[in-house]
Design goal:
single chain, about 230 residues, alpha/beta, eight-stranded mixed beta sheet, 7 helices, about 30% helix
Length: about 230
């Protein structure tokens, strides 16, 4: 598997678990606010990490680490993702997958094979705003809708989450997002934060905490648990 980054310890990426995070290379979206822009192209600038290095660390940390988060980029683009996850599971680790939801067949297959313990799916925007939020003109959101419905079946713990960006999102569209995700278990609102790796920083800005709370209050009409994450 094309691994372009490896964080040996995280307290944040896998809720309530000590974990390591594997970053895969390549993504089918070009979100202007992406803070991992060096991972977007498989041949990009991010260093390549061998599977041997990853599994050597995981073997050494058995009994200390509890899980492995697989993120990106977009992990479901990796043709050998299932094989990699099998090896992680064989070591006794829980596995969390971060995904943009564009490949529902891959997510469904991993769930059916009992290879995942948690899924975090990015909801980039309201459906009508997906082209702007993903940087993909004319994007077909039907695969994304399929993944939403798959997770809402409740066969695996999951969360939906949106990174909110001034210049891309509006408060009003959270009414649409709420109706789309109605009945979901958990939804997190994350504030855009500027960094040197943001893909198109000139179009991105931050909302205030009060504005984000207003968005969260709209979502609470539709979703069981709505929280702000990573916001001071």
């Amino acid at each position: 598997m094309k691994i372009h980054g490896f964080q040996k310890l995280t307290l944040l990426d896998y809720p309530e678990h000590l974990a390591a995070t594997v970053f895969t290379g390549g993504c089918n979206f070009r979100c202007p606010f992406c803070h991992n822009s060096d991972l977007l192209c498989p041949g990009g600038d991010a260093p390549i990490v061998s599977e041997e290095e990853v599994f050597s660390h995981l073997k050494k940390r058995k009994g200390m680490l509890q899980g492995v988060c697989i993120t990106g980029g977009e992990p479901t683009l990796q043709v050998d993702l299932a094989d990699f996850v099998c090896k992680v599971k064989d070591l006794g680790y829980l596995v969390k997958l971060d995904t943009n939801g564009f490949r529902p067949d891959v997510v469904e297959s991993l769930i059916e094979k009992n290879l995942l313990d948690y899924v975090a799916m990015d909801i980039k925007a309201a459906p009508e705003n997906y082209a702007l939020a993903t940087g993909v003109p004319g994007i077909d959101i039907m695969p994304i809708c399929r993944t939403v419905e798959l997770l809402k079946q409740g066969n695996i713990p999951y969360e939906f989450r949106t990174t909110v960006v001034k210049g891309i999102h509006t408060t009003e569209e959270f009414e649409t997002i709420g109706k789309w995700l109605e009945g979901s278990d958990a939804y997190y609102i994350q504030s855009y934060k500027h960094s040197e790796n943001v893909l198109t920083p000139r179009v991105c800005g931050e909302y205030t905490r009060g504005e984000l709370e207003q968005m969260a209050s709209i979502m609470r009409r539709y979703v069981n648990r709505v929280l702000l994450r990573g916001i001071e």
